[in-house]
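The following record pairs a protein chain with its ligand, pyridoxal-5'-phosphate.
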Amino acid sequence: MDPDIERRIGARSFARLLGEWRPPGGRGLADALADRVRLLVLDGRLPLRTRVPAERELAAALDVSRTTVATAYDALRASGVLHSRRGAGSWTRLPADRAEGGTAQPFSPHGSGAHYDLAHAAPAAPSTHLRAAAAGAVHDLDAHLGGHGYDLLGMPALRAALAERFTARGLPTTPDQVMVTAGGQNAIALAATALTRPGDRVLVEHPTYPNALVAFANRGARAVPVPMLTADDGTGRWDLDLLASTIRDAAPRLLYLIPDHQNPTGGLLDAAGRERLIGLARRTGTPLVVDETLAELTLDGPRMAPVARTGRPTRRSC
Ligand SMILES: Cc1ncc(COP(=O)(O)O)c(C=O)c1O
């Protein structure tokens, strides 16, 4: 195999990964196909240096003309997402690879030419709100200076506020169930330390939040990836059958999942999926670490209650 190629994907697997990519009305097929492949490469669902199927094979698997696939592949080559060499086929890569060759082109997940920095999707901090919050905190400072300041699990007032927030989201929570950490990354590292030992397997989505993988690797645990599929709107979709069989086969010590606006695929696990996930964790006795860092990012669409709410009686039925 060509040294630039690390793996290959068959036409049927590729078709499955693409999900329902066809635009309504069936027009602009090649553009829609190229857009979907570009999205999957940029968010990591289709790994770099993967050899994609030959045009004829993919056309057959997708039931489209070979011209459609050829046009899509041409567009992907032009935007730097695909590279081809005679005799070796075509494989995925990041447009930035071309920058190393000195011919960088702006790119975007939708091919519009606008330039996004996908390495750090962190906009500038909202200074007005931050200043107001910091000023408020300074104003309240005196109330906290009288004590010893050693609150191992976090400031009581903050724990109470967080508990209220979970309660408002549908999961009745008391302050003593809350521990304040220095952010999500710190919480993942603590969970890794508390719940795994070196050599343990941890089931993760693929792709997932990279720093979580670092936390598990630092603990000496081994990640067992379950590939994300693609929903009709291009966001990630969980293959719960595969998840179930992987739990059965790999017997992981821990499940680490991001069911809310999954990083990086944006997927949102629906209520039925949450039920199934909780059922799987319970039946197999596998601790489930749910990363809710992004749970409150919902701009529109359903706002999901915390996964821990799933399967519990509602307050009315208590
Ligand atoms: C899914 C996920 N978990 C955890 C984190 C880390 O959160 P924090 O910045 O609070 O450490 C991030 C940050 O982007 C994230 O996307």
